[in-house]
Amino acid sequence: MKELIHELFVKGVPTHKIASEVGIKHNALKMRISRYRKADPRNWKYRNDYPQRTIASKMKVYECEDCCLTFAIETAFKDHADACCPICWSNDQMRFVGDSQINIKI
Ligand SMILES: [Zn+2]
Fold first, then answer.
1. What is the pLDDT of residue 12?
2. Which of 70, 74, 86, 106 is paired with 18 by a 20 to 30 Å CA distance?
3. Average pLDDT value for residue range 26-31
4. 72 Cα to the center of ligand 1, angstroms
5. Sheet arrangement for strand 54-64
6. Looking at residues 38-60, what average pLDDT do you find?
């Protein structure tokens, strides 16, 4: 398995795809690569140039004034009228702050 992981790693395949290819969980793959790198740093160089994918998610930002908590809920979630503060589970002091977007690099 190490050879296949290395082959895909050197090609620049994103780690989540390597994990899926070899049939292990993403975190397990990253731990393996870290272990391989410690043992043999020259063959497991850090990759900065492999293509990164970004997931963009539109969010509505709310604030619970009781808890002084700002939190966001995906716009795609349809039942914003039923939304509540994740700390006090109330929406009595919850107000809409504005629209935002988060970009997650994977
Ligand atoms: Zn609250």
1. 85
2. 74
3. 93
4. 13
5. 69-74, 54-64, 94-105
6. 84
Ligand 1 center from residue 105 Cα (angstroms): 29
Distance between CA 58 and CA 74 in Å, rounded?
A: 6
3-state secondary structure the chain: CHHHHHHHHHHCCCHHHHHHHHCCCHHHHHHHHHHHHHHCHHHCCCCCCCCCCEEEEEEEEEEECCCCEEEEEECCCCCHHHCCCCCCCCCCCEEEEEEEEEEEEC
List the domain boundaries for the chain. Answer: 2-43, 54-105
* Mean pLDDT value of segment 37-55: 82
Q: Give just the sign of the alpha carbon dihedral 41, 30, 105, 69.
A: negative
